[in-house]
Amino acid sequence: MGRINLSRWIGLATAGATAAGLVLVVRWLAFQQSRSNARQDAQFDVNTHESDKTLENVWVVFNPAKQSDTEQFQAHVEEVARSCNVSHIEWIETSEEDPGTGQAIEALTKGASLVIAAGGDGTVRAVAASLAHSGVPMGIIPAGTGNLLARNLNIPTDDLDEAIRIALGSTFIHGDLAWLRMEDPDEVGDLTAEGQLIREARERLDANGDTIAEDDEFAYTVIAGMGFDGETMANTDSGLKKKIGWIAYVISGVKALHGKRMKASLKLKDAVSADQSTVAPDLAEHPDAQADEGDRPDVEELSDVPARTIMVANCGELPYLVLVPDADPTDGLLDVVAVDVRAGLLGWADVAGKILAQGAGWTPLDLPASTGHMTARQCRDVKVDVDQPCIVQVDGDPVGTASTVHVRVDESAVDIAVPRQ
C-alpha cells in the first residue's frame, strides 16, 4: 500500500473549501444584486398608505456632529424642499444630553405637521419615540454610520436628494417601535432612557400626552442585544467609525469573538408557532419549552438556552447581511434570535456561513454536529434572563449591564415616510 500524501490531501481539501466558499459568495452577491434590482422596481413591499396631510409646518431634528458644514447641509435640504413645494423648514439641533427626544416634543408643541430625523440611528430612535401615537408622521434623512432603519425601509443612504424627497413625500408605513427595560441593572450607561426624556420634556414644555413608556424604558427601531452583540457595540471606537464607517463594528466584533457563553431563560408572550421560524432548530423545540395549545400561546417559557448573544429585532437587515429574514417593522412582532457557538472560531465561521447562505436565498442547514447555531422565535413581548451580567445595546448604543431585560413591541406606533411603491 502506497504512502498517503498528506500534503496532497490537505491541498485538495483547501481547494475544495475555497471553491465552495467562492460559489457561496458569488451566489450571495447575485442574490443581493437581484434583490436590489427588485427593490428599485417595487420599492417597499409592505403595506403602505398615502397621506393627504399638508406640509405647512415641517421640522428637522438634526445631529450637528454628523455634518461637516451644518449651514451648507441646511441650505441644501431647503433647496430640495422647495422643489417639493415646501417653502419653509424649522431646524432644531440635538445635544449630548438629549439625542432628539425633547426636540421632537418641542416640535409637536409648536404644531409640527411632519418631523424629520436627520442623523444616525440614535437620532432616529429618539425622534420616533417622541412621535409615537402623536398622529404626526416622521421622515428620515440618514446621516449616521449604520443608518439601519433607513436601509430596512429602502431609504437611500448615498443619495441625499432622494432621501429628502422621500422624507417629504406622501407614502408612509405604520411602523412598530420596541421598548427595552433592564431589570435591576448592574451598571447604567451614560444614555438617558427615552421614557424619562419624554416625561421631562413634556413637563418642561407643559405638553400633554398619554404615557407611552416608563422612565426606565429605552426605545429602539431596529435591534437590541446582549452578550457578544452588546460587547461589539460598546467597544467600537467612535473615531474609527467616523473614518471607516460601519466596518468599525466588524473590527470590534472580531475582538469580541471569544466572549463568554451564556445560559438564558426566555419568557415569550404571544409567541408564533414553531413552523414560522426561518432558522432551525426553533426555540420551541427546546426540551424545556412549555406552551399552551394554539398557534400563538399566551406564554411560552424556555430555560437553559445556550447562547453567545441574544438579539431582539424589529428589523432584520444589516449592511450587506440579512440577519433575521422574517423581521418586519410593520407586523407587530419581535424576532428573538439566540446565537450559540462552540469550538471557537470554527463555530463563528459556521454561523457566518449560515448568515451568508440565508442572505443568498438558501435555507441554512443546522445539523446536530454543527458548531454554530442560530435559533429564532417571534412574539410580542419577551423577558430574557441570562446567568451572568452582560452589556445591553439598543440600535448600536450600549445602555448598561444587566442579567435581565424586558422588551415589548409598540405596534403601529409611528407613521414613517418610505419610497413610493
Molecular structure report:
It is a single chain. 32% of the residues lie in helices and 30% in strands. It has 421 residues and is an alpha+beta fold. Strands 1, 6, 7, 8, 9, 10, 11, 12, 13, 16, 17, 18 and 19 form a 13-stranded antiparallel beta sheet that branches. Strands 3-2-4-5 form a 4-stranded parallel beta sheet, with helices on both faces. α3 (101-109) crosses α4, α3 packs parallel to α7 (194-205) and α8 (228-234) crosses α10. The longest helix has 37 residues, at 6-42. Mean pLDDT is 79; it is low at 12-46 and 274-294.
Category from helices, strands and their pairing: alpha+beta
Helix coverage percent: 25-40%
What's the alpha carbon Rg, rounded to whole Å? 22 Å
Number of strands: 19
- Number of helical stretches of at least 4 residues: 11
How far is the first residue's CA from the last residue's CA? 68 Å
What overall form do the CA principal axes indicate?
A: globular
> How would you spell out the order of helices and strands?
HEEHEHEHEHHEEHEEHHHEEEEEEEHEEE
Describe the largest sheet: 13 strands, antiparallel
Strand content: 25-35%
Look at the structure and give the mean pLDDT.
Answer: 79
Low-confidence stretches: 12-46, 274-294
Which SSEs are present, and which pair or pack?
Layout: H1 6-42, E1 49-50, E2 58-62, H2 70-83, E3 89-93, H3 101-109, E4 114-119, H4 121-131, E5 138-142, H5 148-152, H6 160-167, E6 171-182, E7 187-188, H7 194-205, E8 217-220, E9 223-227, H8 228-234, H9 238-244, H10 247-255, E10 262-269, E11 290-291, E12 299-307, E13 309-313, E14 317-318, E15 321-322, E16 334-341, H11 345-359, E17 372-379, E18 381-394, E19 397-417
Parallel strand pairs: 2-3, 2-4, 4-5
Antiparallel strand pairs: 1-6, 6-8, 6-19, 7-19, 9-13, 9-18, 10-12, 10-18, 11-12, 13-16, 14-15, 16-17, 18-19
